[in-house]
Structure formats: C-alpha cells, structure tokens
Amino acid sequence: MSVPLITGLRARAVNVPLEYPVRTSIGIVATSPLVLIDLETDRGITGRSYVFTYTPLALKPVREMLESLSALVAGQPLAPHEIARLLDRRFRLLGNTGIVKIACAGIDMADWDALAQAHGKPLVELLGGARKPIPAYDSHSMDGEQVGAARAERAMRQGFKAVKIKIGYPDVEQDLRMVRAIRAIIGDATRLMVDYNQSLSVPEAVARGRRLADEGVAWIEEPTAQEDYAGHAKIRAAISTPVQLGENWFGPDEMHKAIRAGAADLVMPDAMKIGGVGGWLQASALAQAHGLPMSSHIFQEISCHLMAVTPTAHWLEKMDLAGPILKQSLQFENGAAIIPDVPGTGIDWNEKAVREYAV
Description:
alpha/beta, Enolase-like, domain 1, TIM Barrel, nine-stranded mixed β-sheet, three-stranded antiparallel β-sheet, 12 helices
C-alpha cells in the first residue's frame, strides 16, 4: 500500500465553555481555548487533533503558526516521524519550544490520527497495543468545600477510584480542611491527589508537605515553580509524599533533565507539550528506563491510546476540555477510559458547535 500524501492543513480557533472553571492557586482558566487541526490527505482521509492554549490571547498566534506550516507539510508523505524531523530541522535555530512546539505537536497528533485511519485501526493498535480500560482519576479544581463536595460525590457515583483536587489556599490549615472534607466523602479506599500548580516557595512546600504527610495523599503535584528541578529535588528529599511533575515539560529533553536532577517520584507528560505521539513514546521510554510511574495530563482522547502502550502507565487524567465540540466525548465506565473502537483516535468535530464557539 502506497503512503498517503498530505495535501493541506486547516486550523480553526474556538473558545469552548467548561462545566467547571479550572480554578487554581495562581489563576482561573474560565473557558477552554482550543485550536482545531484538520490534516487533509490525497486519500480523502482527514487527521484531526486539537491544541489547548490556556488563554484566548494565544489562540490567534497558534492558529497562524499552524496555518503557516500548511505549505511546509503539503506534499509530504504521511510519515509522522519524518514530518517531526522536518519540523525540528526547520526550527532548530529559532528553538522548538513554546508556540512552535505546540503547533508541531498538534500536527504530529493529526498525522498519527490520519495514519491510523489509513490502516483502519485505532491508534493504540497501530502503535502495537490493544484496546483496554485505562484507569482514570477525576480531575477537579480549587473548588471550595461546597462545590468540591458535590464533585467528589458525583465522582463516587461514577465509579472513579481516584480524585485530584487543587489546593494552595492562603494557609495550610485551609489546605488540610479541604483535603479532609474530600476524604470524608471518597473514603480511604479512593486515591486522593493534590496539585499546588507551582504556587509555593521551596521552604513553604516542605512545610506544607510535612503537614500533609498523615492525610494519605497519593501525590503532591508541582509544589513549586516547574522549572526549578533542584527545588523539587529538595522538596522530594524532605517529605514522605510522592512528588508528581511533568505537565509543563516541553519535550523529552526537559523530562530527562528533571529525572537526572531527582525532581520527581512520578511523571506526568502532557501529550501536546511533550511533542505529540512521537514525543510521548520517547517520554515513556525514559519513564520505563528509570522505573517511574507515568500518568497523562489532559488531552484525554489521545492520551487513552498512549497510556495503553506506556510500560509504566499509572493514571489517566479525566478532564474534558473538548467535549462540547466533539461528535462523541471519550466514554468512562467504572472509573476507566474506554478507548473507542474506531480507526484513528476517535476525534471528530460537531461542526454546529464549532461554528457556535468559533473565535
């Protein structure tokens, strides 16, 4: 079978409502700003992916970057690793990070979706894995006790075996009160993770981490500035709760630096920032080589496929950023993601909703 050729790329910006705003100790993500990618081929196959820009202010530059790359990939064979190398060479002098990395990763994810469709297989099967339930945790925000309790109760009704909340309140007593309120609802058998979203100094993170030691917390995520690997190593050495890190690594090289610094007990790459499917596969090899359990960060539709082929797979993060503009959201049963039995990743647009939320 000859390899399909890429004929073009379309990028569209949308700003999607969230059921719950993502409240953190450093700010609020009130909506889900996404750039949708359609990678077209000469076989009539369209590979789809999306990237998340965190703020609507970044929608325009990311969309324009993707549109500018359409001419570069047009005419190229649908060979994701080769396209990744082409893009890496093009941006070697500029630096393949930030918006550039986001755009390139979006193309990579769309490449792999199209290639899996061309082979008539779900992405997980193209990668040599098998469809299976992927254990997930329900990812919540810095919701306060009333909303937090309601979300925790719903998670228990839906069968989740793990819940994550965001903390980093003005003082540690509020953190403890929130942790204990959620624990009272989910019980001792359910894992409870906490996320500080980089809000603490190293000494404060050590102090709060020690106070949390008796609360049965499964991990403390990003307690200090994510790029401070030495600081994370100090925190890790001083507290007993595992330290989780990784959602802000731009590529496997940054992950490798963090591992060498001893910054984390657990790793959590982001499919977009790590470099798409190709970057994820490199990251999972690093995690395996160092014996580190590896979870996913957002992008649940593609992450479920990737987690299924990750040797040290830990938890998939359930956070539905794109559901309102998809024909079919990822399904969960008994606290596990169900990989769809369709060719590709299963991402397809609800065009009526895309028009409604278009920017």
